[in-house]
């Protein structure tokens, strides 16, 4: 194992121990891992600097206070999550119990909530500014979006990641609502030309200005 790989493996094991058995002292971590306390301390210090671990002083009736370490909320992002499985299970239950229309209503409700949340950010902006803002909104949601203007004056927005891909693959209403949301926020015609839920490498949207781009008032 290369030095970098060994370092990463030790760091991962420390995080796993803190997740499963923490809070722990440096000495306890060293004993579990079978390495020196100095080696553990170096890794824990790095985790602290990255806001992945935190320390707490525990005073004892006798002897010196103990420094115990635990993970921060930020560290949770480094462990596997299966939120999409839970979401799919809930949607299937709703579909089975109340039918497809109930699922569609759920997605439509999400679209309306997002429209109400983001519409104020689009006010008094031209189309280019709205496209840039929408790209920023999507990036904040983990979609890895970018945009550019074509020679004919239209725009293209491309998303290289889809956090709801597993859901969208089984429930295409999610994609339809997203496209409708984009059209409402941008006040423009939006056409999806590629979709990850259909096997594409990205989600690509062609955005065509309307005849008069007056930054229309958005109805929520």
Could you describe the 3D structure shown?
The protein is an alpha+beta fold and 220 residues long. The chain has two domains: 4-74, Winged helix-like DNA-binding domain superfamily/Winged helix DNA-binding domain (Arc Repressor Mutant, subunit A, Orthogonal Bundle); 85-209, H-NOX domain (Alpha-Beta Complex), CATH 3.90.1520.10. Helices cover 51% and strands 16% of the residues. The chain contains eight helices and seven strands; from the N terminus they run αβααββαααββααββ. It has helices spanning 3-21, 26-33, 37-49, 83-98, 100-122, 127-140, 165-170, 173-186; strands at residues 24-25, 53-58, 66-71, 145-149, 155-159, 189-194, 203-208. The strands form two sheets. Strands 4-5-7-6 form a four-stranded antiparallel sheet, with helices on one face. A hairpin with a 7-residue loop joins strand 2 and strand 3. Helix 1 (3-21) packs across helix 3, helix 4 packs across helix 5 (100-122) and helix 5 packs parallel to helix 8. It is elongated, with a radius of gyration of 24 Å. It starts with a helix and ends in a 12-residue tail after the last strand.
Summarize this structure as a short list of keywords or feature phrases.
elongated; 220 residues; Carb_Metab_HTH_regulators; Arc Repressor Mutant, subunit A; disordered N terminus; 4-stranded antiparallel beta sheet; 8 helices; H-NOX domain; DNA-binding; 2 domains; WH-like_DNA-bd_sf; alpha+beta; ArsR-like_HTH
Characterize this entry briefly.
The chain has 220 residues and is an alpha+beta fold.
Number of strands: 7
Q: Please, what is the CATH homologous superfamily of the largest domain? A: H-NOX domain
How many discrete domains? 2
What value does the average pLDDT take? Answer: 89
Task: State the helicity in percent bands.
Answer: 40-55%
Shape descriptor: elongated
Low-confidence stretches: 1-7
Q: Any idea of the CATH topology of the largest domain?
A: H-NOX domain
The percent range for strand residues is 15-25%
- The CATH class of the largest domain, by name, is Alpha Beta
Measured between the Cα atoms of the first and last residue, the distance is: 57 Å
């Amino acid at each position: 194992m290369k030095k970098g790989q060994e370092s990463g493996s030790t760091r991962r094991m420390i995080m796993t121990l803190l997740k499963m058995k923490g809070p722990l002292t440096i000495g306890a971590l060293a004993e579990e891992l079978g390495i020196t306390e100095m080696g553990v301390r170096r890794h824990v210090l790095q985790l602290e600097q990255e806001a992945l671990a935190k320390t707490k002083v525990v005073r004892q009736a006798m002897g010196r206070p103990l420094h115990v370490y635990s993970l921060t909320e930020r560290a949770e992002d480094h462990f596997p999550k299966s939120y999409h499985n839970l979401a799919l299970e809930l949607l299937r239950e709703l579909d089975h119990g109340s039918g497809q229309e109930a699922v569609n209503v759920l997605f439509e409700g999400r679209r309306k909530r997002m429209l109400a949340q983001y519409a104020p950010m689009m006010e008094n902006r031209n189309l280019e500014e709205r496209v840039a803002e929408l790209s920023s909104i999507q990036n904040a949601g983990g979609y890895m979006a970018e945009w550019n203007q074509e020679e004919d004056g239209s725009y293209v927005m491309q998303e290289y990641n889809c956090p709801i891909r597993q859901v969208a693959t089984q429930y295409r209403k999610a994609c339809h609502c997203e496209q409708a949301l984009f059209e409402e926020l941008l006040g423009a015609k939006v056409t999806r030309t590629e979709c990850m839920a259909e096997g594409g490498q990205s989600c690509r949207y062609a955005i065509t200005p309307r005849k008069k781009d007056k930054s229309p008032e958005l109805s929520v």
